[in-house]
Each structure stands twice: as structure tokens, then as C-alpha cells.
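Below is the record:
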Amino acid sequence: MIISGNVQTLMGPVPVKNIKAGDMVIGTNHVPCEVKAVNSEEVSKALVFAWNPALRISEGSRVQTVYGMKEADGTLLMKATNGADIPETVKEEDGTFMAYELVVQNCKSVMVSGYGVEVTPC
């Protein structure tokens, strides 16, 4: 689930908290996909990326790496949406955060603040 970050849409980057059903987001395959639902829940831990602090996700979330979709944890070699390979370190941050689950038609991951983040396909 995405805590913070800008989701790439047909209208440009949009903060995840402003995404709603009916929006067209851009999948990591660069194809537009329709958001069917947005679910939210409060979580007590955020995962923060050292080189991309604009993106925060919840524990157990998966991101697009050079080696495919992996759970965000420790050190990863990220596949950025611009095609670059980025060595990245993920750290935990405790607190209270609102996390958003995007349910997207025909899409497994979307572009969020330059990285691919797994979503719930429908």
C-alpha cells in the first residue's frame, strides 16, 4: 500500500491521497489503466527509500526491482521508471500513517514517484 508519493496519471503526477475511482493511472508497462477502487487503512510503520524519500509504502508492499517484483526491505536494486538501475536502501519509520490500496483494472504495478509499486489488479 502507498502511504505517500505521486502516482503518474494521464493528467500528470497526482498525490496518492487524491487518487479516486475512475482515474487513469500509468502502469509500469507505460499503459494507462483505470482505478476501480481506492481503499485506505491506518498503518503503524512506513518504509522510506533513501534516494527517493517522496515515496513511502507500507510494510509488506512490493516494488519493481531489476530482478522483478520484490518486497521492499533492506537493500534493493530498483528499476526506475526512466529505465535507470538505482541501488536503494529501505528504512522503517514508526508512527501512524494513512496507506492507500489502489485497485486497478488490468494492471499489476503503477508508477509512483519514479518507482514501480505493486497494486491490486482486478
In short: The mean pLDDT is 95. The longest strand covers residues 85-104.
